[in-house]
Structure formats: C-alpha cells, structure tokens
Amino acid sequence: MHNPLTCSPAPSPVRAAALGLLAALLLGGLLPASGHASSAFGPAVPRWTMRPATGPVPAVRDGHAMAYDASSGQVVLFGGKGSRSRYYNDLWAYTLNTATWRQLKPNGQAPPARFGHAMACDDRSKEMLVFGGVTTDHLSNDLWAYRGTSNSWARLRPRGAAPPARVYPSMADDPARGEAIVFGGWTGTQSFGDTWRYSVRANRWTLSRTTQAPSARWGAAMAYDPATGLIVLFGGLFGGYDGRDRLNDTWAYNPRTDTWRNLRPGGALPPSRGYAAMDYDAATKTLVLYGGFAGPRGLLADTWTYDAAGNRWSRVAPSAADPPKRDFSAMVYDKQARHLVLFGGLTGDTGNINGTLLNDTWSW
After folding, report:
1. Which CATH number is 172's domain given?
2. Nearest Cα to 145, choosing from 174, 107, 102?
C-alpha cells in the first residue's frame, strides 16, 4: 500500500497501450467473450480514448491534482509524487483539442512540492485553489491560489481557524456561493470526518456544524453536480492504510443548507474503494467514477456513472480500449472540449506495492 509518510512506488514508467488491453481483459472476467457490452451493464455511454501527447508531458506521478482553468479553457495539473520519491510542485496546462501539454512558469513563489493534496477552481474568481497534502517533511494545511489571468501563485492566509493538516482530503467547488468545500483526510494515524467551507470573497475558513455527516475517511471521491447544486461524495478509506477498511456509500452535501444526506442509491453499487477519480460529465449529465484501490482486491479499472435524478449507479461495460487499472490518478471535466480528462496514477498487479507510475492521458 502507498503510505504517504513512509512508502514509495517503484520508479519504472509505463506508456505502452498494450497494458490497457491486458488490464481490461483481467477485470474479474467481466469482459464478455464477444467484446460487446453485456445486458448486465448500463445504457450506452461515451467511451475512453487514449490521447497520446504531441510534445512534452508531465513526468510519471501519482497523488497529483487537476482542475479546469476557466480563464484559459485548459486543464491544469499541479504536483504529485514521482519516481524515486521525487515530490513535484510543477504546473502544467493541457489542451485536449490539440493533445498538448505545456509546462507553465508562474510568477511568484510556488507552493512547496507535495502530493495527496486537493485542488478546485473557483468559477467566480477564476482562481485554482490548492489545499493540504504532504510535503517532503510534513503534513500541510496551507492554501494557495493559482491565477491563470496573471499566471501567478499567491499564498493565501485565511482569517480565523483553519482545517488541521492532512493528506488525501476531498475538495469541490460550490460555484453558487463562491466557496470550496473540503471533507475528510488523514494524518497517517487519524482520519477526519469534518466539513470545511472556504469563502474566496471573505478569505475565511468555516467549520460546518452539521450534525449528520459521512463517517471519518480519506481518499474519497467528491465532485459538484451542477444539475442538483449538490456535492456528491463516494467511498473512501478508514482504519489502516492497507485498504481493508473501505467504503462504498454515497452522500450529498447541500451547501445552501449546510447539511449532508446519505443517498442510499438503489440497484448495484460500485465496490468499496479509495483513491478513485470522479467528476461530473455535462454531456451525459452524470457523475463518472473510475478506478481506485480496493485493499486486498488490488487496483480497479471499472467505470461507473451516477444519475442523480434516478439516484442510481450504473456500471459501464468494460472495453479492451479502457485505461489500465490505477489509483491516485486525477480526472476533471474540460468544459471547452466537453470531455473528461484523466491523467497518470499508479498501476500494478500487487495493489499499491511495487506499482508502476503512469503519465498517460485519456478522455471520456
């Protein structure tokens, strides 16, 4: 398992598309012999497409974070942990229509190199917020803003109390109120079940006082659903870092009323996991969940969609063209290209032990 405080993955990178074929064929026998979608899966949806980059790409890594920069119409990636336990604080911009990555050189002091942090873009200010994670020597609770309009970093110093330092928190933007919502995280020994709201305008953290909330966890998938105005959270880990204690519950946070609700979807549910990637796909009006870590079951390569109107998860039929199984990847919706973009992570047949770091790019 990839313990953020002590363990590091093996350094060998992978770019071969053949791994995608192998991984998809090993999805627990779920790929029909004909290669066609089985009736046991949900309705037809978009498919995964590998996007070989033209030109330079970010180095192999996991534990990075991505957000969509509305000011430039690009996907932006920050940080992560690479080969030989190298911590990154580089910033990259991705343009899907040209399949190109470009390393940005922002003005001002950059955040310390880190991984396991969270990132979200505030639609009102067009600032991309980076919170928490683990640096080369300590857990963090600092907050930074990248401003694409000026290509600059700024260290934010919010007023009042701040969330305790943590790794693997979940964060999503609430565009209606101009706030970033943070839930959960981990210290390496203690998991959090707290909810914090950061107001960009007031530059202040506020601890939610809601009485009903998801149980303490880290590595949960969380994303904003613009169709409902709710922030949806799925799964996560608790207990030890071996992944034996993991969840597959689905919760919705209402920023307007500052309340959580256990959605208890009907039908089949995604298996319990942590470190999955999830974001809202405007083309299908569903949340898309991909991959993750399932403890003794190892890494996952399944894709699920969540329909809020029907309160139901649907498994997407696997394909030989799907990305290889992985966790610690990042995925975000590119509003200009109207596709989800997935990058990097950790793959391997032995869970998070001696895994192989990735730097491949996929769209959905």
Report:
1. 2.120.10.80
2. 107
